[in-house]
Structure formats: structure tokens, C-alpha cells
Amino acid sequence: MMHVLKKAAAAAAAACVATASMVATATPASAATYGAQCGSGYTVINKIEFPNNRGTTFLTYNSSNGNNCVVTVRTSPGAAAPMDAFIKLSSSSTWKRDKGNYTTYAGPVYVSAPATCIDWGGTIGTATIESPDHHCG
Questions:
Q1: Is the full-model pTM beyond 0.85?
Q2: CATH number for the domain including 106?
């Protein structure tokens, strides 16, 4: 009888270890990542994540030419969906944008904005995010 109990205890311990290792290796949903869509020399200076892990709109800056760039990136590329990346000088009423049905990202869209504020944002599906009067400089 003691031999049966030892086997049962060993099996239970092995099951606990297996369960613990599965829990330890579970990974959270990953956010969209910037993939240098704006080109070399651009550094991410801000980002806004969409709800429900749809993706992220990234604002980048190139200190060598003074340009800002915006790109909207889906977390999980798939079938083409409505997407938009947009940016403008805060003092302007005209957006520069890349709007269409895309599988992975919208943009890049550029604006030169030395010593002035910019507005920027993006759209994935029906969700739009925007950051007004941002990065003044």
C-alpha cells in the first residue's frame, strides 16, 4: 500500500511541475512594434496604443533633418482593413495622411515642424486616436 501512495504522490508532484511550467511560459499579448517604416535616422518619441490590442500609432523624429513621421502599425497583420496615419502642423487645417485598406501598416507620413506644435494620430478599423498640440519645438 505504501508503494502505491508513493507513486500517486510522485505523479501528483509531476503534474504540479508541468502545470507550473505551462503557466510560467504563457506570454501576454504583444503590442505592435515600430519597424523603421519611416526610414533610417528616425527615433520613436511617442506612441499611442489602440484599444483591444489592435495596434499602435508611432510618432518619430529625425534630428538630422528636423522631420517628424507617423506610422500606424497593426499588432496582428491580416486581411486588409481601413487604416490611416496622419500628421499636421497644429496651426494648419490640412492633414498629411496615408489612408487606405492595409494588411500591416499605414504611413509613413512626414512633416517638417521646427519650432512649432504638431497634431498626429491614426486609425485602425473604426478606432481613431489623436494627439493634438503635441511635441512643440
A1: no
A2: 2.60.40
